[in-house]
Amino acid sequence: MDTDETKGAINETIGKVQDVVGSVTDDAGAQLAGKAKELSGKAQEVYGQATEQLRQTTAENPLITLAVVGLAGFLLGALFKRANRDSINYDDVPPTRGRRY
Q1: Angle at CA 51, nearest 5°, toward 46 and 41?
Q2: Comparing C-alpha atoms, which of 8, 9, 35 is closest to residue 21?
Q3: Backbone CA torsion sign across 71, 72, 74, 75
Q4: pLDDT at position 63, please?
């Protein structure tokens, strides 16, 4: 179990306890804080599980991981190049002679 998973489970439990205490004492603020802490803990636990799964997958299949990362880099580069090209207004650029740098 990853540390994020452990911290998430602990925060989720604390949030549940805080929610119950808020219900018993009719304190809406404590109840809301408990629900928020519970959701935060659940999100942290899911994040921990995802990172652990990612670590395991990259350790088992390093070449596939490298291919996926390379493809993602290529696609992001193409996307940003296109966005940059679309944002340039060539009407304001004076004509040049010879080489363009």
Answers
A1: 30
A2: 35
A3: positive
A4: 93
| Cβ contacts of 70 within 8 Å, gap of 6 or more | none
pLDDT at 25 over 80: yes
**Whole-Å CA distances, 22 to 37, 47, 63:** 13, 27, 51
CB distance 3 to 32 below 8 Å: no
Q: How far apart are CA 24 and CA 70, in angstroms?
A: 54
Residue 86, pLDDT score: 62
Show Cβ contacts of residue 90 under 8 Å, excluding neighbours closer than 6 positions: none
Q: Tokens in use for 25?
A: 């004492």
Buried residues in 81-96 as b, exposed as e (16+ CB within 10 A):
eeeeeeeeeeeeeeee
